[in-house]
Specification:
Elements: H1 30-45, H2 55-80, H3 84-118
Length: 119
């Protein structure tokens, strides 16, 4: 009988902690792997930030993708810890509430414009 083997690949820690990734495993999350690939491509091509960006944008862009990944990871963890029907219901509620709210706002604005024009 053949035994299944698992391989874990960890990120190398830098002294200054710049590309640390907190020692996360590559197979833990594909987003971590995508972040690493993107960072390596940026280093290889030496992409410079646009000159018309403000200073705070240049400082924050370094942490932006990591913050987004952490937020999505937190959301996934919360949804994974709930019952499947509740998670699907919450996603459906948000997905339906946004277009319905947009239509309600649109019709109210059209009603106000109609009242101003005819009134």
């Amino acid at each position: 009988m053949r035994r299944a083997r698992s391989v874990n690949i960890c990120a190398r820690r830098e002294k200054e902690g710049r590309y640390n990734y907190d020692g996360k495993l590559v197979d833990e999350n594909m987003i971590v792997l995508r972040m690493r690939i993107k960072d390596m491509k940026m280093l290889e091509t030496s992409q410079m930030l646009p000159s018309d960006w403000m200073q705070w944008e240049k400082q924050y862009i370094r942490d932006y993708y990591e913050d987004v990944c952490d937020g999505v990871g937190w959301l996934q963890m919360c949804l994974m810890n709930t019952r499947p029907c509740l998670a699907v219901g919450m996603v459906a509620l948000v997905a339906l509430s946004v277009p319905i709210s947009a239509w309600v706002i649109f019709f109210n604005v059209m009603g106000w414009i109609n009242g101003v024009v005819l009134g």
